[in-house]
Structure prediction request, 972 residues.
Amino acid sequence: MADRPLNVVIATDCGSTTTKAILIEKVGDVYRQTFRGEAPTTVEAPFEDVTKGVLNAIQEVEELSGRKILDGEKIITPNDGKVGVDIYVSTSSAGGGLQMMVAGAVAAMTGESAQRCALGGGAIVMDVLASNDGRAGYEKIERIRQLRPDMILLSGGTDGGTVTHVVEMGEYIAAADPKPRLGIGYQLPVIYAGNKDARPRIQEILGSRFALDIADNIRPTLERENLMPARHRIHDLFLEHVMQQAPGYKKLIAMCGAPIIPTPAAVGDIIERVAKKEQINVLGVDIGGATTDVFSVFQKVFNRTVSANLGMSYSISNVLAEAGLENILRWVPIELDEQDLRNRIKNKMIRPTTIPFTVDELMIEQAIAREALRLALDQHKLLAVGLKGVQQERSISDAFEQKASGQSLINMMDLNLVIGSGGILSHAPRRVQSMVMMTDSYQLEGITRLAVDSIFMMPHLGVLATVNEKAATDAFEHDCMVYLGTCIAPVGQGKPGEKCLEIRLAGDGLNFSESIPVGELKLLKLEVGKSAKMDATPAKGFDLGAGKGKALSATIHGGVGGVLIDTRGRPLQLPADRKARVGLLRKWSRALDLYPEVR
Amino acid sequence: MAHAYTPGLRVTRSALIRKRRILPIKGTLLVAEGQTVTATDIVARAEIPGRVHAVNIVNKLSIEAGETTRYMKKKAGDEVRKDETIAENNPLIKWFKSAVPSPIDGKVESVSDVTGQVLLREPPKPLNLAAYVDGTVVEVIPGEGVVVETHAAFAQGIFGIGGETVGHLETIVASPDVDLKPGDLRPEHAGKILIGGAHASMPVIRRAIEVKAAAIVIGGIHDKDLREILGKDLGVAITGTENVGITLIITEGFGSIPMAQKTFELLQSLKGRKASCSGATQIRAGVIRPEIVIPTDAPAGAGGKEGEKEGMKPGDPVRIIREPMFGRLGTIQSLPPDLTKIPTESHVRVLVVRFSDGSTATVPRTNVESIES
Prediction:
């Protein structure tokens, strides 16, 4: 699709807490993000009208930019000098986002495909039901009844295969008769994207009770996944049904010059574009208040997962519940009383908009973030897998290294770029804090570049790309991505002080040559846009990407943080003794100048 | 700056409170507009569809799925009794006869010739929706519910557990900074909404359950005690359905924190009055805070109606809601427009708070809440 000619764009993302507006203007031949504003989201009582928050956020942009954008509650279009904009676009995750239930015939096959389809469409998956999910029929029905999803995706069977299992799931859904989360009197949308031979029967079972929509099978054959048609239907139904029930969205839809899309779908779109353009493996994370989204493109395959209850405010207490206190404490470089930490975490949960004021509080939040990031990636690895149930052709050589189908696609050694987003990463007071949080939680391996989204504008750019790709790409490259630098981390284990890495870095003002022992963190300055040539030889037992003990040369890119050399070993092991651990964390903090007051 | 909006907890002596009482599914309304109701009156009723049981006839009778209808003794819509035969085969030799009994009393929901499944549904269960507060029905939403209006004193807590309850208010400490002790709770507190001070420990909560108190309203509790009450770590703050034998409302936060003077004085002054309260809390996607509604005869004063909150301005009373000055009260001295560097090195919007002793502190705007009236 050709780009729509635009000079001035106002874009908003209606998040669960905050509505963020950005102004994008064409400066010369390049689109730049120029001003931003934000205001509390107003989906909830007493306002119950999402457009109020949108207007407040745009009003802030008006005040900062001097551009008149609003005429009362209307957005002035088109742009005429210092008045108006050419288009208004928006994403939304307010009111809990898009919440879906998915069903498939076999859990590991169509169940997983359906889950990937819904997640890629920007949904939170409340549950995955399948014929073989281990639950008895009545248990499945009870579960469907309890859930109040915004939408259901039903898949199952390959085209021309057996219809029994998918029809059975259809019967369960009909019997449960689930009610939509929003709006008491409207029909719940159900997308059927399974065996095409079962369509008449599914129509018969579900057609009269639900807003049934038929899409192409998401798994037409065992060897092929076809997620896009159903994903497009998810977006359409999200607009046609779900958003029509949310407070103020009818007005918002009318204000927009392009369809509103769910926030995570827009972020996923941008990350996929980056991976495609650069031909690299990318991992993206958006750690929000309620949820953490993980996006990956490995071997050109896009995956998205959302950990619905891992986040830094609303869900902060769930990070504690899932990770356990000890796992959080292992990252805190100060002595803390358990009861005090528990109460602090709960107080953040009940007053989610507060921010750390002291350095101790900042350290605690960043420790919790490490665990949320770690857990979310663990969940992502389970779903970002190759297709299961696929027959593989094997040669004689493969016979010695037989791998089951459905292996995780996420190989940290092959990862080229990590992009972090969300307040705790994007707004960390020192950029190196974001670098170390991601390095710790993901245990980066080999050579990995790190970046953050400067002001969380990936959603805006994702939706903008649907109307003008150049505008989105320009703003992404110039204003969105903040390159932090590169992490160099050999994989292996050794005792502190033993030899780990011989490294030489030269170029663009950097001249460094050293033998670095096990157990160190070092940060070298190498500015954004600059690069250095690396020649490195890991010690026997350590692998930097070329194999254990094998030398490697590569170009290393700089950033606002610099080059982080991490010889702490992988998997990273911290002392079990609390005092020893705190001492070590402080040593590393000092080495990186991580916090203002670590003595 | 378009808005400096920080929602606060509402604590007011006089307000017009409207409670939407909505059924989870469509049902029947039992009251009319203009009718006076008490908190325990049933205002609407719905029939919650019964549980569904799946019986696979194919496996039980060793037949093909396509033959299911042929072997059925009952058809969709028929009533069935428990153990009544719903399907049977008809072999040449009677000895091989098999019958499938109904596992429940109920109805045949559907019979499938594709899967061989028969779905049976239990009879519906009635769901009664109470008015929750004493008041007047001011609006009926056909098939869905009603709006009950009342003139009341109203106080919101910050977090609670347990559902809606009704009782008379009882203050059992002299001041808001006193911790409750198990010995403070006596048998005569059965059915009462007890107003405490700064903290309720686990022995206090156990004692309150033992004396059958309806609810405790308290400044704070420790998280470890919440975990003990619930039997698990609470992950996400969506509460109200816990069945722990009491409704618990905390007004300030986790830890031992004196109840705000204003909240305490209000509740103390209404000692003996009938009140409705709920521990239901939802901090994500639709904020619901726990509350105490104490109907009064007086009409709501000016500005007492629920409505939009104004932005903050100098002179407004605020409470600091984050360490290191958590719980301190003051008034806004100024709202500097520029971003200001705080000890974490973040640059954020701040305000300057003046305390009663004349001292001042610069605090992130997000770390205070308005004290509303």
